[in-house]
Every structure is written in structure tokens, then in C-alpha cells.
Amino acid sequence: RISVVAQDEVVQIEDEVRVERVEIDTTGTVTGS
């Protein structure tokens, strides 16, 4: 169960990073255009 919880935490972190990247991409494209 410990490994499963660790994997869940990693997934959440990856999701947060993806959201940040999307926000940066969207703002970058908006300012670029």
C-alpha cells in the first residue's frame, strides 16, 4: 500500500506540473499572438 500511495502522490505532482506547463503555454501563445 505504501508504494501505491507513493505512486498516487507522484501522479498528483505530475498533474500539477502539467497544469503549470499548460498555463505557461496558453499565456505564452496569448502574449505571442
Can you lay out the helices and strands and say which pair or pack?
Layout: H1 2-32
Structural class: mainly alpha
Please indicate the percent range of residues in DSSP E strands (runs of 2 or more). Answer: under 5%
Average pLDDT for all residues: 71
From the alpha carbons, calculate the radius of gyration and give it in angstroms.
14 Å
> How many strand segments?
0
Helical region count? 1
Unreliable residue stretches: none
| Total individual domains | 1
Distance between the termini: 48 Å
**Helical percent range?**
over 70%
Would you kindly provide a written description of the structure presented here, covering whatever features stand out?
The chain has 33 residues and is mostly helical. The chain has one domain (1-33). 94% of the residues lie in helices and 0% in strands. It contains one helix and no strands. It has one helix at 2-32. The longest helix is centred in the middle third of the chain and has 31 residues, at 2-32.
